[in-house]
Amino acid sequence: MIKICVVEDERSLSDMIRMNLEMEGYTVEIFNDGQAAFDKAQEIGQFNLVLLDVMLPKVSGLDICDEIRKTSKVPILFLSAKGTTSDKIAGLKKGGNDYLSKPFDLEELLLRVQILLQTASPLNATTETALVIGNKTVDYTNFEVEDKNTGETLRLSKREIDLLQFFAENEGRVVSRDEILDKIWGKEQFPTTRTIDNYILSFRKLFEEDPKNPHYFHSIRSVGYKFTND
């Protein structure tokens, strides 16, 4: 589960960013106040990525970046209405990894987020970048699955990739629905166990030769699921 911290005082913008990041499968926490973020800098440093506004009430984003950098190398993407070359240089010198000027295109923001996460800690720091299931190869980095027989590729969501990785890391072990919800969705979100069932149905249609008699994704009655791979 990848966690992203958004420090942005404009609530309409922070809510929009949160919604779109969560749609991509990320877990998001928001700080709308510079002082609150500064006080929690050490905790923020434990996230996978920080989106940090420069112009904040009470404490600036540059000062927050300074404080985070005392204990963490977490990737930091500055967001700012100040978009001159000197502003960008100042942010990068403070320890930022990237700088995006407002107003920005949402698709560009999501792409920069994906690139920073891949560069810093691809898929929760795992060394594996792909998963082979039967005649299909899942590319964790590019969020794609390729059919080796036909050469066709299919785009997967961030949530699907995280779930497949989770099953691969727990191959052969029965995992409960509650454990899956906790690891992939997090305690602060409230999907139902039916949500997982729907993902499993999709995986069976994609990977199994006979979805009604699965070889890889097994249902364990009243418990959860078990993934087995050749």
Explain this structure.
- This protein is α/β, with parallel strands linked by helices.
- It has two domains: 3-120, Rossmann fold; 125-227, Orthogonal Bundle (Arc Repressor Mutant, subunit A), CATH 1.10.10.10.
- The chain has ten helices and twelve strands.
- The chain has helices spanning 11-23, 34-39, 41-44, 61-68, 85-94, 106-120, 122-125, 158-169, 177-185, 193-207, and strands at residues 3-7, 27-31, 49-53, 76-80, 98-101, 130-133, 136-139, 144-147, 153-155, 174-176, 217-220, 224-227.
**Computed structural class:** alpha/beta
> Structurally, how many domains make up the residues?
2
Looking at CATH, the homologous superfamily of the largest domain is Response regulator
Please report the distance between the alpha carbons of the first and last residues. 25 Å
Question: Going across the major beta sheet, what is the strand order?
Answer: 2-1-3-4-5
**CATH A-level architecture of the largest domain:** 3-Layer(aba) Sandwich
What is the C-level CATH assignment of the largest domain?
Alpha Beta
Computed Rg: 20 Å
The gist of it:
The chain has 230 residues and is α/β, with parallel strands linked by helices. It has helices at residues 11-23, 34-39, 41-44, 61-68, 85-94, 106-120, 122-125, 158-169, 177-185, 193-207, and strands spanning 3-7, 27-31, 49-53, 76-80, 98-101, 130-133, 136-139, 144-147, 153-155, 174-176, 217-220, 224-227. Mean pLDDT is 88; it is low at 121-127.
